[in-house]
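Morning F.,

Quick status update on the modeling queue. The single chain you submitted on Monday has been processed. Sequence for confirmation:
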Amino acid sequence: MMSLLPTVPDVPSSTYDRADAAARQLVGQAFLVPLLKEVRESTSAHGMFAPGAAEKRFGPIVDHQMADALMTRLDLDVVAKIRQDLINKETQKTEVNS
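Structure tokens below.
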């Protein structure tokens, strides 16, 4: 999805990069990890195809890794909105301190 939110050209790249990373991490951990966990736990494998002890133990780690990988590739509107909000708060804070 392409974001319809305007880009902020006068924001320093470090602020933009930090806001982008924080927004992607928030969305990944808040939305994708629970979704991936639900998908992983809802499999109906039985017998020799059932998840083993290692798969049950390391499943949450795989969920987090998969969410991080997806968030680096996806351009979601919610990420753009959170990123823009973070940038706006940062610019307001720097204007107050100036």
